[in-house]
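yo, 16S rRNA (Cytosine967-C5)-methyltransferase is done. seq:
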Amino acid sequence: MADPRGRRRRPGGRPAPARAKVDAPRAAAYDVLKAVRVDDAYANLVLPHVLRTAGLTGRDAAFVTELASGTIRRQGTYDAILRACVDRPLAKVEAKVLDALRLGTHQLLAMRVPPHAAISSTVDLVRAKAGQGPAGFTNAVLRKVAEHDHDQWVRRIAPTDPVGFAAIAHAHPVWVVEELRRSLRSVGAADELETLLAADNAAPKVTLVSRPGTSTVEELQAAGAEPTGRSPHALVLDSGDPGAIAAVAEGRAGVQDEGSQLVALALAHVGLEGRDERWLDTCAGPGGKSALLGALAGQRGAHLLASERQEHRAGLVRRATRTSTAGLLGVVVADGTRPAWAPGSFDRVIVDAPCSGLGALRRRPESRWRRSPKDIAELVPLQTELLVNALDSVRPGGVVAYVTCSPVLAETSGVVESVLARRDDTRLIDAEQALLSVPGVALEKVTGPLPGTVQLWPHRHGTDAMFLALLTRS
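structure:
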C-alpha cells in the first residue's frame, strides 16, 4: 500500500523509509571490494568490468579506481583505526558493512572528499546494502574516524617498535615488513625500508612494451606514451586506455611491467657459445615474457617454445604471442616439473617461477592480505624443482634465467643456493653484467643478494621487485 506521495506504508499506516540513493562511483568501488572478498578476485582485473557495467568513464572512473585500490592497499591501517572506533571485534561486523566502513575511512583519511560527503555517502551505501540499523552504526563509527587525520591516527595506535610502526603506517602485514627488511639488508639497503613500503602504496603507471619487429617505440610515442629511459622497449602511459592504442589492440605491443621486460632482455642478450636456435619459457602464462622473447628470437632466426601447465593460461599465452609467430615454435600445455621434451633440448630457458608476488604489491595490493609465511614454505620446493628441471632442459653451455616477482630471500637466493649446492655441473653467470650490457638499458644499484644476481625495486627503479639469476651447465 502507498501513501499519496507514492511511498510504501508499513503495517499500521506509517510510511516506510525512502530507499537510499547510492552514489554510482561509490557503489562501483563497493562492488570491486565485494568481488575481491567473495570471489578472491584481483582488483586490477575486476575493475575494468565493473566500470563498463556501471558506464563510468573519465573522472568518475578515476575516482572509483583510487577509492577501490587505495582502500585495499591500506586495509591493514584502516582496520587498526576502525578497531579503535568500534565497540566490538571487527570479526563481528557484517562483512558488507566492514567493506563500506573501509571505503568511508579511505575517503576521510586519504582523499580530497569533504568529511560530510564521505560520511553521508557511506551511510547511504550501507543503508542500501544492509539496512537502517547498520547505517546508524556506520554514521557513528565514521564520525569517530573523522576526529583525527591519518598521521594522527598512526601515532595514536601504532606500536613503538620499528617493524610494528612501519606495518601500521604503511599498511603491510608485520611478517611482510620483516621479509622486505631482510631482503633490503642483504643488498646493503636496510635504511630504505620505509621508502620501499611507501612505493608499494603508490599507484603504478601503465607501462607498455614495444615488441621488436612488430611495433616501434616511435609508434607508441605518437600515441602519447613516453619512453622510460631504462629499457629500450619500455614506455609509460600517464592517462587513457592502453587498449585504445592500435599497436596494443592488435597485439603488436602490450602492457608489461618494465621489470619483466628487463629480465627477458638479460636472458636474450647474454653471450652464448655454440648453437642458439631453441628457447624455452617453462612457466609462460599469461604470456608477456613469451611475447617479448618470441619477438627477439624471431629477429635472430631462433624459435621459442612457450609451455604452461594450465590450459586456460596457455590460452592467454596464445593470445599474447599471436603476432610473434616468426619466433614462436609453439605453445604447449605441459608441467615444467615433468618436462615433455628431451633433456638438453634448448639453448636458452626462462623459469618465471610461481611465487608469493610480494614484489608486485603496487599492482596486486590484495596479495599482502592473502599471503602468509606458509605460502612461501610451500612455494620454495616447487621453485627449486622447476629450476632443477630447467637446468636439465638446457644443453651444456646454454643458459637458464631463474626469475621471481618477489624479493623474499627464501624464494630468490635461497632457491639458487640450494640448487648450486646439489649440482656440481652448474654455476652462476654474472646477471648484473649481462643486464647492464643490453643496448639501451640504463640502470643503477641492481645488485642482488648473491654476487652476480639482480634485484630490481619499485622505489629504486619504478619496476616490480623482480629477481634474476642466470645459470649455466658445464
